[in-house]
C-alpha cells in the first residue's frame, strides 16, 4: 500500500506545491480493473489501486481550482512483467484476453501513453477526476454467460444487420 498509494500521494503533494506557480499542470495516475473487480492473487494490489482512484478524485477536486488537472487511466491487460509475475499460464491468459476483447488485441504501453498525452492536452481540460477505462471494450462484457460469449468465428450481429437483411418486410 505504501508504494502503490502513499508514494503517489507524496508525489502529488510535492507537485501541488510546485505546479501552481505555472497555473497549469496535469497529474495522471495508473490503476487497473483490479480496483473494482476481484482478481485472484491481486488482493493488496487491487486494494491499493482502489485507493489511488479515490485519491485521484479528491486530488482533482482540490487541485483543479489551481489549474492542476488530475485523472487516472485504468488499462486492461497489458503484456508487461507484472503479468508474468502472476501465478497463471501467461500465454494462455494473454490469448484468452485477446480473444475475448472486442478489439481482438491487448492494450499496449503506447496506447496508455497516447491517452495520457491526450489527458494532458488542452482538448481534455474539462476531463477532471475521472478514471478512464482503456481496455478495448473488455470491461463491457458480462462474465455471467461464458457459453454465450461472441466467438469471432460465430459472431452474429446483435444491432447492426447483415447486408443481406431485407428491411422491406
Q: Please tell me the CATH architecture by its name.
A: 3-Layer(aba) Sandwich
Give helix and strand order, one letter per element, not per position: HEHEHHHE
Per CATH, the superfamily is: NAD(P)-binding Rossmann-like Domain
Mean pLDDT: 85
Radius of gyration over C-alpha positions, nearest whole angstrom: 19 Å
CATH topology heading: Rossmann fold
Shape: globular
- Give the biggest sheet: 3 strands, parallel
Number of strands: 3
Separate helix tally:
5
Low-confidence stretches: none
Main β-sheet, spatial strand arrangement: 1-2-3
Strand content: 5-15%
Q: Roughly what percent helix?
A: 25-40%
Structural class: alpha/beta
Describe this protein's structure.
- This protein is an alpha/beta fold and 169 residues long.
- The protein has a single domain, classed as Rossmann fold, CATH 3.40.50.720.
- Helix content is 38%, strand content 11%.
- Strands 1-2-3 form a three-stranded parallel sheet, sandwiched between helices.
